[in-house]
Amino acid sequence: MGKSLPLHLLHANNFTIIINRSHAILHFVAILFLVHYRLSPFFFQGPGTSTTVPATLPWLLIFASELLLSLSWLMSRSFRWRPVNRTVFPERLPPDGELPAVDVFVCTADPNKEPTVEVMNTVISAVALDYPPEKLHVYVSDDAGSDATLRCTREAWNFATCWVPFCRRYGIVTGCPDVYFSSSDDEHGKFKGSEFKAEREKMEKKYEVLTQRLRTIVQDRDVALNSNARDHPSMIEVINEYQREEMQDEVKMPLLVYVSREKRPSRHHNFKAGALNVLLRVSATMSNSPYILVLDCDMYCNDPTSARQAMCYYCDPQTSPSIAYVQFPQTFRNVRANDIYDGQLRSTFKIYWPGIDGVEGPFLSGTNYYIKREALMGNFRKQEDLRALKRSFGPSNDFIKTLVEDHKPNFINDGESSRMLLEKAKVLASCSYENQTTWGSKVGFMYFCVLEDFFTGFTLHCKGWKSVYLDPKRPQFLGTGTTNFNDLSIQWTRWMSGLVSVAISRCCPLIYGPVKMSLVQLMCYSELAFEPLLHCLSLWGFALIPQLCLFNAIHLYPKVSDPNFNIFLIIFASSISESLYEIVVVTGGELRAWRNEWRIWMMKSVTCYTYGSLDAVLNKLGVTEASFLPTNKVTDDEQVKLYEKGVFDFRAAPMFVAPMVTVILVNIAAFVGAFVRVLVGDGGDGYWEKMAGQMFLSFYILVSNYAVIEGMVLRKDKASIPLSVTFLSAVFSVFILLIGSYVLC
């Protein structure tokens, strides 16, 4: 009876589906009326037609902006076509002895931007997962080759030998010691007696000693070693190879391995995807687990049962053969209710991902996912041609053996076998191993762009694999989100560059995907890949073209008394209503959450989306080379205080601040000029009626981005917009008003 119970259930959000589809029909009809209005002066002129074109070029440019944004809206309907949510029942899984093994990959790249204490907390939380220890193997990828990270990993392991038994004994759910000891919630697990309190105090003192040792190691690290992050040999060490005798009888611990791949300045290392492929090869020779959990170094395991929840799909014979990965959302512990930077990515993980989960599954999202090794490597049998396998996977015979279905993992038993195994593993981690192979192009994580996750997931879906999005009530993983404008801009520029690089390549979803995936799934991938281009071009159009025409008393929208004015009014109200419904009703956010997301979207469109698109195009033309800048995870107390107060920190590169200030100044000039004309009656009869739409657009942009005006004029603190940036933006604004007016009007 028990065996017949399902391990998981899928629930379609029928009410939201009805709302989404009804809204899509109405909004689409309004867009058709808009297209008719814009084209009627050219194709539908007649005796009863009142529409005239005041200036052809700006009319066509604003029409192009409207079409681009409408195209993005149309493709985004795919995310809202069939939103679903899922429930799993890990208590119905088979006994521990029948569960498959899991490898955990923890990736770190820069000890200067990724605090070592935070990285080690992630490693410790991974070791503390609620999974059979003999079937759990944790690999730490140190792409900087830092000796300090290796030494800190050893210290973390020593602490974990005490921390893991403590968590198991008392049922502690929070596996990250830093969060557990600093949390205001008094989590006691299954015990509340004096024995537990005494053990907790001892453990807390041990953690304090650990953090002090980690900080000392980081402070005393060898500067020369740190400066050779791009030039160092491969280094692999099994941290728990020689367990203390007294520990072996007390508790079983997972395998913990430190891996640093070889890097040389003369070779391209393919960013994070290259590091993950090294871990794929090294882990294959040591544990060769069929499933892999990938974590960023700041994403600690907040719930130890995530592996068991993922196994609810992999242990189901009906779904397991087709599922490549189970994706969990990215949740951040440092975001506040007034999240002015939208660091929690609310729409992404609460609207987009549940929507695409109803269409063959979500995108691969960089971290917090369990992926099937077979999906990345393929499935082979003993009779496979050895030479063909070596052409794809490289010359290592030991690694080729791991591809065979019945291959047994090479567990380390003694010092001699360990030494031989590590020497072979170092060859797999060398920077020359992938020469003349298909790593990154056909097998493993895909190289192609800095967004290895998006392109790898796209490739897997094109091959027929499916994926699952699982969002339990308790966040399975918690990380650190961006809480200042500079880090946000750098991070999003990198993401947008990766997306556009796929959009303008031979692997463009519109070219590569039509015959390999469903129409709705194809629209999802296409919308995300083209989103930076569509949004930056359209938003720059809306931010400047109507304003330049307003500045020169040229109308682009119907009179208020014209029935066609209702078309634009309905589209605007429809867009606002949809975003309000999704943020407030679907995700449970507040009105200020809606305001914050709307504002930061406009800011990112004229900065990150623009620079990311430009970077991808220049990379395609060979003018620049792709680069990867890890997101800064170092906490700045002053920045945190500003974020908690809901105050923007504009201490960012001028290239990110100047475009926003320029847009604001142009809109101020246009709105004030038009307002003065209305007051003095200088615009002639019907001026207000003709210009109401453009005046409202400028006013809406100014009100929505009041934080920028505040940073320019009202604030005098260190985080305000520098006077030099304001002056530079003023020069750009005057140039745009003069040249733009001459060209367009």
UniProtKB/TrEMBL annotation:
Location in or out of the cell: Endomembrane system
Family annotation (PANTHER family): X-BOX TRANSCRIPTION FACTOR-RELATED
A Pfam family per the record: Cellulose_synt
Protein origin, superkingdom: Eukaryota
InterPro entries: Cellulose_synth, Nucleotide-diphossugar_trans
Taxonomic path: Eukaryota, Viridiplantae, Streptophyta, Embryophyta, Tracheophyta
Name of the protein this chain belongs to: Cellulose synthase-like protein G2
Membrane topology according to the record: Multi-pass membrane protein
Species this chain originates from: Hibiscus sabdariffa
Coiled-coil residue windows: 193-220
Keywords: Cell wall biogenesis/degradation, Coiled coil, Glycosyltransferase, Membrane, Transferase, Transmembrane, Transmembrane helix
Key word Glycosyltransferase present: yes
Spans traversing the lipid bilayer: 12-37, 57-76, 533-555, 567-594, 655-679, 691-709, 721-744
Keyword Coiled coil: yes
